[in-house]
Every structure is written in structure tokens, then in C-alpha cells.
Write a structure and sequence with these properties.
- The protein is α/β, with parallel strands linked by helices.
- The radius of gyration is 22 Å and the shape is globular.
């Protein structure tokens, strides 16, 4: 069996969305003729831990770990944060930014390129060059962000000329928060130079969606292959029946950042509550995961405290049960310049439970195309209050009639096993 080294910052017991894609690839690659070996930090700064994900890690899998130096301790001391506080790398705010927060972002933006994991690049290249020479490794996969993982693979490619597939779970310079980095012109050029070198040097480049893939192709003038995010059927094969919520529950899972918190959502619900007392009594809003402070501000502004419930991170095996019990799953897309290509991993897990999806996003975007093709959701634009209210009314009437189960046609194409087969085919073609 051929061997592939998978370089990933996120790996169980780390939780969160960043770990799902590499974890599922590694789970299914042996069935496709590839033996994965994982390289990951032994002491990475991760937003959450989720021991339930360890069920997907084979006892036969070799996981290589090396310590990493990250400047987060200095950052916490500088900004007055607790040393125990988990840092989210995506500039996700829990409070109003002060001078120290802005200064820290400026320093990170211009001195930590491509990201705060940059000090792991050279030690990793040195360590892995020796490892690869001593062990027969047939190919490398790097998955980012953080994009330092791609620079490790780039260094190994230059030294060993080993086949390399670069997997972009998110864009680099076109990611939604890139413009928030307060970059100097030199730093912006450096980011773009490193990005282009990765894109043009890797033997294969993979991206999670059509629009982002097209944007990468423009940057590197080459073909970019698309492997969507997806869902693992094993995660949704529950041995117990999960009862549906008695209330008309609209549920959001995962990070709810400021960019995903659209005021039109709260306004629509407040107006519907004012128009219909029965709807108001039936309504229940549930948010699971890290939450921007603006969500609670809108909740108070629109007087939806009685209907709204906030929960901390829940392990993946438990959050699956939450999805099955939800009346409606809320998909909120960031309203950013790259919105057309945004297609978060949660959309595919939403598909797996075959519950109705309420989406606020670009009606011509990649996420909207998935919803339309599978027939599981309703979408309205970022400022379209009346259409959003109409969509909620439709879902509410389905709930009242007990007709809120969806068929979820054509969702098998988004199976993690199917997608890993696509990945293995690409690996086979770079040998």
C-alpha cells in the first residue's frame, strides 16, 4: 500500500470544523489504497477539544507529533486575557476591540506571515525531511488554513521533489477576514507571493467549492480540482430514535461570528412574533458554539430573550442528536466580498439529517446551489426581510402540519467516503 504524509494543524482530540475534513480523509484513505501518516503539533492552540472524534482514528494509524511555538501566551499577556482562554485565529470578537487588541492584530498581520504558526515551518521541514528519507513516503497532502502547513510541504517539495497535493479548506488572500488584517503593502505582497508559490509548485491543488476554485485558477493559471466538504454517514447512523423538538426550534450550530449575525434575522422573527401570538409561543431559537457579542445585543434589541437559548461547544456525537431533533436548521452565510464561494462544512451535515434548512445568503451563491439541487432549504438575501419572513412562515406551517421532513435527494455525492475516493484518484495521478 502506498503511503501519504498528511500535514494538518488540526487533529483529534481537537474539536471544531477544521478537523473534520482531514480526519475523514484519513479515515477512508486506507480503503482507497493509501496508508496515511499524520503530522500534527503536540501542543497546538485549538478552540475546543472533542474526545468523541477519536472513534474515527484507527489504532493502526501512525500520528507523528512535534511541539510548536506559538505567540498566543504573549498575546494574552499583552491584551490582558486569561492564559486559559482559548484563542480563535479568525479574528472573532467577543467584545469591543480596544487599543491593545488592534495593536495585536496589526503585529500579527505584518510580522506573522502567513499566520501565527510560522515558527513551526523550518523545524518541521528539518524533521520531516529526515523522516521521509528514512521511510518510504509516496506523496504529501497539506491542508490549510493555517497556511503554514502548505509552506512546510513547499519546503519538502523543494528538497525531496516528492509528489504534493495542497488542500485549501478556505482561501488564503481571498478569505473574508483578510482585509481586516491591517496589512502594510509589503506584508500583503508577501502573502500573495507565498500563496502563488504554493499554488504553482504543488502537483495538485484542491479546493472545497467551485467559485473559490475558479478564483484560485486565476491566481495560478492552472487547473484546481474541487472536492466539497461533506458528511460521514457513520456519524448519522444512530442506534436510537431522536424525538423532534416540541417547539418550533430554529437551531444554529457552530461559530456564530459577527459576519454571520444578520440583523434581518432577528427583525423578521420579532415582527412575526408581534403579528402572531401563537407563533411567538411556539418559537425557540438555539445557538450551539462560540458566539459573537452582537447576537445577544440583537436578542435584547428585538426582545427575543424568552425564545433564545445559548449553549457552549457540544461534542460532535452529541451535536448530531441536536441536528436530528431540530425543527429547522439555520444556515447563515457571511456577507463578504467572497460570499459567492462560501460553503461552510455545516451545510453538508445539515443535509445528512434531512431537516429543513433556513438560509440567509447570496441567492446565486455556491451554498444556494447545493440547497436548490437537494431541495432541502429555503434561502433569502441578506437584506430581504419580506422573503425571509415568507420562508419562515412556510417552514412554520410545515411544522404545524407535521410535514417538516425533507427527502434530501442526491445527498450521497457529499459523502466523505465518496470524496475520499476523489482524493485518492488525484493522488494516483501524480505518481
Amino acid at each position: 500500500m502506498k503511503k501519504v504524509l498528511v500535514i494538518s494543524y488540526y487533529w483529534p482530540p481537537a474539536g471544531g470544523s477544521g478537523v473534520q475534513r482531514p480526519l475523514k480523509f484519513v479515515k477512508y484513505l486506507p480503503e482507497m489504497g493509501w496508508e496515511p501518516i499524520v503530522y500534527t503539533p503536540s501542543n497546538g492552540e485549538v478552540p475546543d477539544k472533542d474526545l468523541s472524534l477519536m472513534k474515527d482514528v484507527s489504532p493502526n494509524l501512525q500520528v507523528i507529533t512535534q511541539p510548536i511555538f506559538e505567540p498566543y501566551t504573549l498575546y494574552k499577556l499583552f491584551t490582558g486575557k486569561s492564559l486559559k482562554e482559548k484563542i480563535n485565529p479568525n479574528f472573532f470578537t467577543q467584545k469591543k476591540e480596544g487599543f491593545k487588541d488592534k495593536a495585536a492584530i496589526w503585529i500579527r498581520s505584518n510580522f506573522f506571515i502567513p499566520d501565527a504558526r510560522m515558527w513551526w515551518i523550518k523545524p518541521s521541514i528539518t524533521y520531516l525531511e529526515k523522516y521521509i528519507r528514512e521511510n518510504k513516503i509516496d506523496a504529501i497532502i497539506s491542508t490549510g488554513p493555517p497556511h503554514s502547513m502548505h509552506l512546510i510541504a513547499l519546503g519538502l517539495k523543494k528538497k525531496l521533489h516528492i509528489p504534493w497535493l495542497a488542500d485549501f479548506r478556505d482561501p488564503w488572500t481571498n478569505i473574508d477576514f483578510f482585509k481586516e488584517l491591517t496589512l502594510t503593502s509589503w506584508a500583503e505582497k508577501k502573502h500573495k507571493s507565498l500563496e502563488k508559490e504554493v499554488l504553482t509548485t504543488a502537483d495538485k491543488v484542491v479546493c472545497v467549492g467551485k467559485t473559490w476554485g475558479e478564483e484560485l485558477e486565476i491566481l495560478c493559471n492552472r487547473k484546481v480540482d474541487i472536492i466539497n466538504n461533506g458528511f460521514d454517514p457513520d456519524d448519522f447512523d444512530l442506534k436510537e430514535a431522536i424525538p423532534l423538538d416540541a417547539k418550533f426550534s430554529i437551531v444554529h450550530l457552530g461559530m456564530f461570528s459577527k459576519g454571520r449575525n444578520h440583523e434581518v434575522f432577528w427583525k423578521a422573527l420579532a415582527e412575526l412574533c408581534a403579528e402572531d401570538e401563537v407563533f411567538k409561543n411556539d418559537l425557540q431559537l438555539k445557538f450551539y458554539g462560540k458566539l459573537d457579542v452582537s447576537a445577544k445585543e440583537y436578542m435584547l434589541k428585538y426582545q427575543l430573550e424568552a425564545q433564545t437559548h445559548f449553549f457552549e461547544y457540544v461534542p460532535h456525537n452529541e451535536i448530531v442528536k441536536v441536528q436530528f431533533s431540530s425543527r429547522v436548521l439555520y444556515l447563515s452565510v457571511n456577507n463578504t466580498p467572497n460570499v459567492k464561494g462560501i460553503m461552510t462544512g455545516k451545510i453538508f451535515e445539515y443535509l445528512a439529517v434531512k431537516r429543513p434548512i433556513l438560509c440567509i445568503g447570496l441567492e446565486e451563491g455556491d451554498a444556494a446551489e447545493v440547497l436548490k439541487n437537494t431541495g432541502v432549504g429555503l434561502i433569502s438575501g441578506f437584506e430581504d426581510l419580506e422573503k425571509l419572513k415568507a420562508n419562515i412562515r412556510i417552514l412554520y406551517q410545515q411544522y404545524k402540519k407535521g410535514e417538516d421532513q425533507v427527502s434530501g435527494a442526491q445527498i450521497e455525492q457529499y459523502s466523505r467516503k465518496t470524496q475520499t475516493a476523489q482524493l485518492a484518484k488525484l493522488l494516483n495521478n501524480i505518481q
